[in-house]
Amino acid sequence: MAGWRRVIARLRSLLDNKSAEEDLAREVASHLTLLTDDFERRGMSPEEARLASRRAYGGVEQAKQAHRDERSLLWIEQTMQDLRYGLRTLRKSPGFTIPAVLTLALGVGACTAIFSLVNAVLIRSLPYGDPEHLVYLFSPNPSLKIPAEVICPSYGDFYDLKREAKSYVDMSNFEQAQFSVAQQGTTQRIGGARVDADFFSTLQSMPELGRTFAGEDNLQANTKVAVISHSLWVSMFGARPDALNRSIQLDGANYQIVGVMPPEFEYPFKSDLPYGDSDIKSTQIWVPLALNAQARTSRGIGNNVSFARLRSGVSIHQAQAEMAGIMARLDKEYEADPRDADAGLTREWGALVESFTGISIGPVRPLMRLLLAAVGLVLLIACGNVANLLLARAAERGRELGVRAALGAGRGRMVRQLLTESMLVGVGGCAVGIVLAVLFLRLLPKLDPGNIPRLNEASLDTRVFLVAIGGSLLTSLVAGLMPAIGTSRMELTEFLKSHAVRASSAGHSRLQSALIVAQTAMVVVLLAGAGLLIRSYINVESVDTGFTRSAVTFHVSLDQRYSKPEQHVAFYKDLMAKLEALPGVQAAGSVNYLPLTNSESLDFIYVDGFDNKDHQQTEGRDVTPHYFAAMNIPLVAGRYFTDADASATANRPVIINQKFAETFFPNRNPIGGRITGDPKRARWWTVVGVVTDVRHTSLEEEPQRQMYHASYDAGDASVAVRSTLPPATVANEIRVTLRSIDPKIAATNVLTMGDMVSIATARRRFQTSLLTVFAGIALIMALVGLSGLMRFSVNRRTREVGIRMALGAARRDVMLLILRNASVMVVLGVGLGLACTWIATRLLKSFLFGVGQHDPFTVVTVSVLLVVCGLIAAFVPARRAASIDPMQALRTE
Question: What's the mean per-residue pLDDT of the chain?
């Protein structure tokens, strides 16, 4: 108890130091007065008594200090003294403080910004209840040569799974959809979903206002209800609570709003579904799926997405094993759906269970790791620069430290003082770095590729702040340890000898040189990585897409008023005619699946004269006759479609691409060749033309076999317009033309094909831009560090240079001496960096396109760039060394 009272008393004294000092002064004065009075009573004069009392009392200041040590927490007071002294010395040395703080701030800012991104994308939980238990259910089929994650169980299979599977607490189904929403006389297109009654409960997501769907909402008689997103609630209704129970018009039908979801809930996002509708970035509205009895029992391929919530204690592997068993039994119990059978599909649906996080985050996890590794190297380079600055500063302060040691400062106290100063630099670097991180995060959305989940949610939360502070202090501590350890090893006599100080400087110089070599090696790794990504990006951008990038495209979706095929035909014929009548328009055509929209249609075919042991697979597209002209897709052989081809019934004309012709007509003329989807019914299509290959799915994948049918019959279609006018003018004319045909039909996703290419390369551009920026920052920091070391070396060797020049050395020789020292460090760093690059670039293999991971051009370019930049950085110190006056240099010693 007494110990605690003593601690409390010391803390009180520390907090109220002024009052304690006043009490101490009064107490000392009282003791001296009593002693003086005693000596006067013994017969001494006042002056003699005063002197005698002081001799008897002893050193006043020593007594005061002993009392201070007794009443206070000594280590806290000493720390405060170190902080005050450190702040004072840093303030008096702006030439050291500013570069050190800014260097550290660059490294900390880059790390903080990227960690904010990683935190939002990888670490933060998805905005659903227990997201680690949420899984997708897929049904791969070996007959389909497509990724396993494309197809989910049919509705009939899904509801059988729901009844029989014991691995799941709940299961749900939904279909993505786009809706035309009427608002204030205009029509806009928004992303939505048709969901079953268990959709929100499976996700464990509650509405912000109102309710979600009940079981009766999914009955066909009660389907006109809707739940809207928070953003749609704000944009359409001004966030007014009375939006509940109001009507919203979707595709010409009125729906009653029964709920509003919270801001973070817009599932599914574009990044949530690997093969979802690429035009839907986030979901703004949900309506009931409301399947009829026939649809609920359908066993054919659908557009539905199936997901479930795992029961506690059940692993994904166990759930998949159970699903596989059920699907195997269903494969035996049911025959293939007639439509699937006509297409050549057999009833052999498998089972694949994938976690929500694996599907949405898995594809970007390698990118996040790459960015973290890059900024980690940047922070290490910053640490090396700060360490170099601290080493140079410690060498310059050798005499000062020697004097302090002579006056009684302990070795531990001096080490602590040096570490305190480096920690203060860390605090300053952290503060400035956080500001830089905020600025970087504001710029990040401009680089958003659109397929990185929750990138717009990257922010500086508590976790990020703690990492930033911890990283800054750890970096500054590591940087400060080097000069501190060197100082602790020196004896007092060495501190006070000028030659010993120079020897210490030489030791520091060797350590500084090693740091420069290491920094250069890390810069080589970053520059090589950035160079490979730049070359890959250029290669992707240079790919022959097979179409013109100047064509303006837009999407049209006909609502329920256009329910008959003849209405579709009439609408699109009218639209194409009016578009082609516009001034400057050269051609207009539509297609059901536009290139680079992550959507495709697969056809199973038989080719007459080809060995059709298995059902052959090809991409199929419906186009209007002038589509090829609008997209400027060259004709290789035969002819384009005519209007008569779109209405042909027997021997319908088709156009194929070169890949199709090379595969199925390798040694014969494809023109006139016959193709069918069902040889039993003998409905043959005749090849009338061959066009060049078009990269429909991805710029980085080889073109697949493609077959085009002429048709005006489409509910949804993308329209392409080739014109000599600017895209903005064409887009405006498109909207005016569409309104003249039907004001309730909106033109959405109005983009040029060049924009589509830009969107397709957005993630590659994102990663290339960031890595290039980090490599640039690293290069600048390394060059600044090299230049600083050369300046320090010149200052340290001023007398040596003076002697050399006094003995006849030419100024050119002195300059070459400094440049040679710099070039040795750079060359060693480049060599070490190339060895590291040989290993590190293996991690980039999945990011490269059209370039090898050990590309000679990149390696040579990076090496030459670093050597040249290193010599430029050393040139100014070298010229300064060459301009030293020998007499002045010898006089200063």
Answer: 83
User: Which secondary structure element, helix H or strand E, spans residue 764, and what is its range?
Assistant: helix 762-796
Alpha-helix residue ranges (DSSP H) falling in 361-409: 365-396, 398-406
pLDDT in tens, 784-810: 888 877 777 766 666 666 667 766 677
Mean pLDDT check: name the lowest of 297-306, 315-324, 491-500. Answer: 491-500
**Which of the two residues, 143 and 130, has the higher pLDDT score?**
130
More confident residue, 554 or 147: 554
Q: H-helix or E-strand containing 463? A: helix 462-488
The amino acid at residue 39 is F
Quick: pLDDT tens for 691-726. 999 998 888 888 889 999 999 988 889 999 999 999
- Predicted pLDDT of residue 49: 74
Ranges of beta strands (E only) in 196-311 are 209-210, 225-228, 247-250, 253-260, 285-288, 304-310
User: If you average pLDDT over residues 555-561, what whole number do you get?
Assistant: 84
Pairing of strands 253-260, 225-228: parallel
DSSP sequence for 178-223:
EEEEEETTEEEEEEEEEE-TTHHHHHT---SEE----GGGGSGGG-
Please state, in angstroms and rounded to a whole number, the distance separating the CA atoms of residues 893 and 885: 13
Q: What would the two tokens of residue 4 be?
A: 């605690």
What are the structure tokens assigned to 153, written together?
């169980």
Q: Which of 626, 618, 582 is nearest to 601 (CA)?
A: 618
Q: Are 822 and 786 spatial neighbours (Cβ–Cβ below 8 Å)?
A: yes
Give the Cα separation of 558 and 768 in Å (integer): 40
**CB count, 10 Å around CB of 774?**
26
- Residue 503 predicted with pLDDT over 50: no
Q: Rounded to 5 degrees, what are φ and ψ at 377?
A: -65, -40
Q: Is 185 exposed, middle or buried (0-12, 13-18, 19+ CB in 10 A)?
A: exposed
pLDDT digits (tens, 9 = 90+) for 198-240: 999 999 999 999 999 987 877 766 678 999 999 999 988 888 9
Which tokens is 21 given?
Answer: 């000092």
Question: Does residue 244 contact residue 259 with C-beta atoms inside 8 Å?
Answer: yes
Mean pLDDT (whole number) for 308-326? 93
Dihedral over Cα of 315, 317, 318, 324: its sign:
positive
Q: Are 658 and 622 contacting, i.e. CB atoms less than 8 angstroms apart? A: no
**R_g of the chain, CA atoms, integer Å:** 38
- Helices 498-541 and 762-796, packing angle to 10 deg: 160
> 524-539: buried (b, 16+ CB within 10 Å) or exposed (e) per residue?
bbbbbbbbbbbbbbeb
Span between the terminal Cα atoms of the chain, in Å = 62
Which residues is 300 bridged to in the sheet?
none
Map tokens 């500063």 to a residue.
Answer: 393
Q: Is the pLDDT of residue 516 over 70?
A: yes
Using alpha carbons, list the distances in angstroms from residue 132 to 61, 357, 452.
67, 7, 19
pLDDT (tens digit, 9 = 90+) per residue, 460-490? 888 898 988 888 888 888 887 777 666 655 5
Distant-in-sequence, close-in-space partners of 170: CB < 8 Å, separation ≥ 6: 198, 201, 202, 308, 309
Residues 697 and 600: beta-carbon distance below 8 Å: yes
The confidence band for 501, taking pLDDT boundaries of 50, 70 and 90, is very low
| Segment 551-568 mean pLDDT | 88
CB 549 within 8 A of CB 758: no
Give the single-character DSSP code of 267. Answer: P
**Omega before 483 within 30 of 0, i.e. cis:** no
Contacts of 625 (CB under 8 A, 6+ apart): 589, 640, 641, 642, 643, 645, 646, 710
Cβ atoms within 10 Å of 119's Cβ, excluding its own:
20
Which residues share a beta bridge with 187?
182
Q: Distances from the Cα of 818 to the Cαs of 115, 564, 813, in angstroms?
A: 40, 84, 9
Give dist(CA 233, CA 211) in Å, integer: 14
* DSSP assignment letter at 849: S
Three-state secondary structure call for residue 140: coil
- Eight-class DSSP state of 120: I
